[in-house]
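Issue: ligand-bound run for guanosine-5'-diphosphate - logging full I/O for the record.

Environment: standard queue, default settings, no custom constraints.

Inputs:
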Amino acid sequence: MTSAQPNTFRPPIVTVMGHIDHGKTSLLDKIRSTDVTRREAGGITQHIGAYQVQGITFIDTPGHAAFCDMRTRGASITDIAVLVVAATEGIMPQTKECIEHIKKNDIPFIVAMNKMDLEGASPDKVKGQLVEAGFTPEEYGGQTAVVPVSAKTGQGIDKLLELIKLNAEILELKSYPDRPLQAFIIESKLDKSRGPVASLIVQEGTLNLGDQVYADDILCKVKAIVDDKGQSLKSAGPSTPVKVLGFELVPCVGSLVTPEKRLPSPTSQCKVKYEYDEDNPKLKIILKADVEGTLEALKRSFSDDVYILSEGVGAITDNDVFMAETGNAQIFAFNVNTPKQILKLAEKNQVKVFQSKIIYEIIENIQSQVLKMLEPTIDETILGEGIIKAEFKIDKVRIAGIQCTKGEITKGDQIHLKRDGKIIKDTKVEGIRHGKDIIDKVKSGSDCGMTFKPYIDFKLNDVIISYNKT
Ligand code: GDP
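Outputs:
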């Protein structure tokens, strides 16, 4: 690292986060619309995942809370967080999660108490909840800045911006444009005509046209730099968010951009892997999406019962199919065009593929499969139940002595074998006997001898459940 001296202060990098529907997007839109220079530029707003207003860089991408956890050289890339809490609803589960991110990363934050224009707003309740969460508002003698705002009327927005600037001054965020480049990717996608496009925020150093840099291990020969106002730039310095063309592949959100090639950063969103716990089954999936933003938005919508074996931006590849086959996973793809031969390959390998251009359809399909996995009998009608009370052997064939306790069980029925309250095997009724007679069915209150096919290694006191799919 060089000892290049700072020449000025850099704008703070701000992440806005909070519970869904509390107004993050509206607040960011309102703040952006206060920008006079943008209006003067003809109102051409480029969505690049972040923007600068009044010397503040706001990250404006669906990654929100994740940007608190991303770190470079040990520090979070977020300098200041704005926690949006709707004054009509107060602190909600996701608000608490955000507070955890803030605490864990020790990030200074300001509470934007939003929706103050609504009748149901109750600021005192929110402040009380903040006290309970360990963040006493300044007006109660604590340290936490709480600003009442309305993303609808614009009330309090100026005050919020002032407070962010004040906090930034205290942080003394020095600018080092002469140091080696260090930037991080906030959004990326594959553009049909232009190839990989990524937005990044420079933290230190300067990115210049023609530079050769790496996003982790992905090479970029910088072909174009465009800012949030749609202007082409020759270079971008500290805290500047820009869109960059020239990457060889689509880089992952969270990856570091430096002059040297490096191994993927541990916080890069594409590299997050979880250990699979066989005793705690999860729905295994391979997830593909058109852009990093939607990929992450999708991931955040899944419950803990979903295990992402692999994920990525772009169409389904043969590699995804082979990985799904070996990993016993299904492939879900949002808004990508998968070549026919890949779909054929999946079919041949009996890999399930679900594609949609509607995000909600993907989430719904996954949720219903999770439900089915946790509650395997959710789409079944129970026809009968019995307990295995004895075991006989005739001609080396094991026969279960069943006492039918509910409904009736018929030859050919599909059967779950349940042990200690858990379904452990599925089979079918092969044959039923009463004494020496071969019978078709057994009813509640009667006993019988039963054989199953495929073979199951039943034990005394196992329960058999006969069912129909509804
Ligand atoms: P996000 O999920 O946190 O990004 O929330 P959105 O910005 O999408 O807002 C959710 C809903 O609340 C939308 O219908 C907004 O129009 C509305 N909303 C957001 N902020 C305000 C506000 O200050 N006042 C009122 N009345 N409605 C708001």
